[in-house]
Each structure stands twice: as C-alpha cells, then as structure tokens.
Amino acid sequence: MPQNTAVLSTPKVVSAPPTVNIRPQSISITKPKIFENTATDNIVSEPIPELNLNNSFSDEEFFKTWEKFQQTLSDEKRVSFSNLNIPVRNSDNEFIVLVNNVMQENEAKKLLSEAVQFFRGQLNNSTIVITTKIAEETETQRSLSPEQRYMEMVAKNPQLEEFRKLLSLEID
Known about the structure:
Elements: H1 59-72, H2 75-82, E1 88-89, E2 94-99, H3 102-122, E3 129-134, H4 139-143, H5 146-156, H6 159-166
Parallel strand pairs: 2-3
Antiparallel strand pairs: 1-2
Helix pairs in contact: 1-3
C-alpha cells in the first residue's frame, strides 16, 4: 500500500502587476456648430440710442422706488425687507442701510443685491450703490433696566403712568 507522504513546498511569491497610469480620454460635450448661410446685405442696422444710465434722482424718487421694490417681493422677503431701516444718502448715488447685528446684515445683503439692480433700472442710473453698516449701540441702551426704560417713557408721555394704573399693570 502506498503511503501518504506530504511534500512540503516553498510558497511562491506573487508580485502585483505593475501599475500603469493610463489616463482616460477626455470627453467633451459641446453643442454642434451649425453653419447657416446668412445674408447680411438685407439687414438694415438702426443706430442704438445710448442709454443715459447716470440720471440724477431725488430722495423722493428713490423712496418711491424703494416702496415699489418692496411690492415686488414675495411675502417672506417682504417681511425681511420691511424690517430694514430706510437708507440714508451718503453721496449722490451711494446709500447706507443701518442694521442692528450681523445676522440682519447678512439678510440685508441678499435683499439689497436684488434691490440695487431694480433701482438701477427704475431710476436709469447704473452707479447706485447700497451698503450696510452695523449701528453702534450706545451705552445707555444696554444699561437701562425695564424700570428705567419705563420711567424714560413716562417722562416723554405722562399719560402712560395713568394708563398703567388704570389697567393695574406691573413693570417686569
């Protein structure tokens, strides 16, 4: 009977195939060029009137356009836009909108980029610029407690105290 004999063999080392940097061919998707036979002899070109895009405008015209732009906005944008302070003229064609904080400034920048284009078209002036500036809070605005604020309002309008007593209201 034959015996089972195990033959030990040394393992062969298999090397990885060499890597080859094969670059795929580039693919270009372009619109095919269509060549038409166009006759330019029959076209009469009329001179294009130059647009005067530097018309001057009054503050009243600007604010009417401000209101007109607000009416063109969607409801959500209209609310954000109405929360903005009315712009103040800084120079002939530059306006500044004061905002209270950075979040309001970011929202204002989105809206004002649309507004500037609208104003330029409506007022025929391509040099209109609207910028934002964060308003600085004064120290008195921060340090006043609700009672102190109420006392300032009463100083301006004494009937407020009578109204508070009539309704039995407390100051929180």
